[in-house]
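To the wet lab folks,

You asked to see what we're planning to order before we commit. Fair enough. Below is the target structure as tokens, and below that is the sequence we designed to fit it. If anything looks off to you, flag it before the synthesis order goes out.
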């Protein structure tokens, strides 16, 4: 048998296909990094950058030299008091900021559709969640932003909560009123944490929404690899002193990050920060102009809609990040997942995301005008080829009710569980997550009691062709419950 390297070979096969990338990482096959002429040697030196904590190269967990200097420069660029390089992704930043401002048994106010890192932090920290639901745009089939009124209600009903977490911007680019939320949170002596995974680029253009630190957040975790030029898994945690225990957050970072940090990842963060400080404004001016033209052209195609700033003012949305390019096919009558499949197979275009109604492109400074010409031409061609097909169904209008939390997520995870028939699970405590997508908001989470209403509503959702994420049994004939 011939020795093979299936992972490496698979990646190389994808590269050889020559697909146009509208997905992460944000450097788009290195194109954005190569736009920095004075750092053009980065590509050639990549193998030599894989170093370790030897004299002169500093230590991520006790920085005193070049890492300390690089993090201080990042704090200046992102307008925080402290910035920490993350090599375990934004997940470890979310863990560290949540665990750094809470103690075991504390309540924390979080969005119902939080990233799984938030649930993970609650499990590790033994925290009690107080969920609030974001608004949902049923026409677009997406969960969007949250109104300050929902945050205010959650605070009023749970004055003992230690912190509030907000996801901003959303994957689809919608933004909440973080300034108003920060004022509410601080007035009630709580800490504001922002999962800003999709917003690392926001500080570098006046035409982009306000970033979390400028809006008054106490901590913000960002995935620099999503929207900037750093490598996958490289992120940053920004901290404002005053309301948080900085030393405790640093302890949690040492707890959740590897003791063998990648110098390649850290160097890519340093370069991404430098690029944004030096050239960010002009690079985003060019990109945003390209996106304006692209949206206008797409919206001339019958029954295909690429939304933009016109959605501001709807569903609690106070601003919009135009670098999230969502193209909606609800009126066209084809599922976004099928459109994405056609784009890949017939046009060599790979999107970042697809769902029932939409496809989404992640736009970054690594893109070129020709990429958007290619996508526009493909959409026109699809419009002509498939205009007679109508297969899409509406998301059912269901009145979801927040379940009763019988156990904390940590307690639920460590209790013995068993698999039973889903339709017979009324009154049992769930040991897993069930989240119809779209809109991606869980209807049941670990530790919550399953009701007959929940069972019947999920059955309706399945019958409508909506994908169910989360359960061990993907068909959801059975569900894991506490024994």
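Sequence we intend to order:
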């Amino acid at each position: 048998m011939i020795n093979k390297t299936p992972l490496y070979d698979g990646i190389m096969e994808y590269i050889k296909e020559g697909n146009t990338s509208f997905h992460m990482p944000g450097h788009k096959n290195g194109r954005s990094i190569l736009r920095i002429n004075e750092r053009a040697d980065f590509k050639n030196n990549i193998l030599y950058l894989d170093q370790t904590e030897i004299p002169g190269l500093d230590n991520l967990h006790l920085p005193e030299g070049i890492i300390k200097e690089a993090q201080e420069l990042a704090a200046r660029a992102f307008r925080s008091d402290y910035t920490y390089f993350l090599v375990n992704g934004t997940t470890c930043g979310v863990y560290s900021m949540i665990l750094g401002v809470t103690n075991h048994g504390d309540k924390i106010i979080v969005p119902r559709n939080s990233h799984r890192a938030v649930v993970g932090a609650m499990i590790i920290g033994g925290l009690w969640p107080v969920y609030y639901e974001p608004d949902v745009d049923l026409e677009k089939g997406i969960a969007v932003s949250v109104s300050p009124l929902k945050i205010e209600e959650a605070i009023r009903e749970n004055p003992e909560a230690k912190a509030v977490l907000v996801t901003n911007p959303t994957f689809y680019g919608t933004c909440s009123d973080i300034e108003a939320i920060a004022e509410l949170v601080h007035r009630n002596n709580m800490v504001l944490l922002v999962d800003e995974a999709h917003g690392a680029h926001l500080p570098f253009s006046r035409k982009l929404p306000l970033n979390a630190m400028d809006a008054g957040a106490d901590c913000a975790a960002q995935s620099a690899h999503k929207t900037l030029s750093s490598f996958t898994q490289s992120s940053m945690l920004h901290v404002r002193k005053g309301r948080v225990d900085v030393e405790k957050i640093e302890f949690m970072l040492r707890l959740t990050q590897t003791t063998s940090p990648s110098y390649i990842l850290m160097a890519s963060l340093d370069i991404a920060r430098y690029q944004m400080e030096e050239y960010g404004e002009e690079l985003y001016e060019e990109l945003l102009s390209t996106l304006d033209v692209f949206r206008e052209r797409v919206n001339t195609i019958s029954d295909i809609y690429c939304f933009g700033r016109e959605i501001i003012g709807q569903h609690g949305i106070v601003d919009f990040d135009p670098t999230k390019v969502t193209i909606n096919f609800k009126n066209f009558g084809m599922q976004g997942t099928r459109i994405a499949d056609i784009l890949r197979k017939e046009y060599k275009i790979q999107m970042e995301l697809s769902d029932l109604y939409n496809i989404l492109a992640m736009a970054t400074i690594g893109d070129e005008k020709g990429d958007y010409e290619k996508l526009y031409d493909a959409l026109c061609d699809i419009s002509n080829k498939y205009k007679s097909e109508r297969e899409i169904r509406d998301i059912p209008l269901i009145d979801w009710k927040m379940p009763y939390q019988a156990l904390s997520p940590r307690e639920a995870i460590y209790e013995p569980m068993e698999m039973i028939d889903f339709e017979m699970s009324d009154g049992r405590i769930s040991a897993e997550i069930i989240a119809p997508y779209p809109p991606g908001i869980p209807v049941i989470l670990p530790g919550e009691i399953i009701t007959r209403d929940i069972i019947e509503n999920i059955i309706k959702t399945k019958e409508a062709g909506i994908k169910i994420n989360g359960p061990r049994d993907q068909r959801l004939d059975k569900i894991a419950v506490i024994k």
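Structural context that might help your review: Residues 50-272 form a domain with the Aspartate Aminotransferase; domain 2 fold (CATH 3.40.640.10). The mean pLDDT is 94.

Thanks,
Computational group
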